[in-house]
From TrEMBL:
GO cellular component: cytosol
Any one GO MF annotation of this record: holo-[acyl-carrier-protein] synthase activity
KW ATP-binding (keyword) present: no
Keywords associated with the record: Transferase
InterPro entries: 4-PPantetheinyl_Trfase_dom, 4-PPantetheinyl_Trfase_dom_sf, AASDHPPT_N, P-Pant_transferase_sf
Location of the 4'-phosphopantetheinyl transferase N-terminal domain: 31-117
GO biological process terms, semicolon-separated: lysine biosynthetic process via aminoadipic acid
Gene3D superfamilies: 4'-phosphopantetheinyl transferase domain (3.90.470.20)
Protein name according to UniProt: Uncharacterized protein
Species for this entry: hydrothermal vent metagenome
4'-phosphopantetheinyl transferase domain segment(s): 123-210
One Pfam family linked to the record: AASDHPPT_N
Amino acid sequence: MTVRHHWSEKPGFRLQPGIIDIWLCQGDTVQERLEHLGTLLSAEERARAQRFKFEIHRNRFIISHGFQRSILAKYLNIAPASIQYQLSDKGKPSLIADERDLTFNLSHTEDISILAVTCDAEVGVDVEYMDRKADWQAIGQRFFTAPEQQALFSLPKEKQQSAFYQLWTRKEAYMKILGSGFSLLPTAFTLTVPPQPPALIQHHSTKIQATMQVEFIDIELPDELMNYCATLAAGALVGGVNCYQW
């Protein structure tokens, strides 16, 4: 499944079971809000930001996490700075004492951030910049399963690079919905390779509990982001997706 919805700027901030809101933040459009976004972060987040060696990476961290707090606060009707997170034993964040069963997941690359928000279902999202200089063939040979490699490298040469990055976002989104972090290798499961619709083919690890029903959605980003790709994974059937620009 691929989402080609219009990216709107008029959200409702109302959660509905089966509906996922996807939020897009382009960092270069919110630089003037950088100082304000920094004030929304927790002491731990500010400390993490200061550990970045380069200012550009520090600013991107502040923007992405300030963006997340700003959006979640609208759904929760509370101040962004008052939001408290807790981490699973694998490092996946969730809200402390949330009575609305709100679930979310954040991904960022370069100056682009994507946030998925829903209720009553786990979500994982990943966005990647399609770096033309990266040795993506070597990465694919190391981190993709044999069936994935066969499907990828059987594609016409001109289609392989974009398919690699889309498959990478599919695998990252799936690992995030499992909450496995880096404890699970990408070779522990096989997914379909573009242009095939995203789907799980097989698990290869006993670490994965196969009881969760997962739906994958390739997200078609705005035209100006043609060098990026993104995928959403949801732990329930998706009744609809709303796409919003921040």
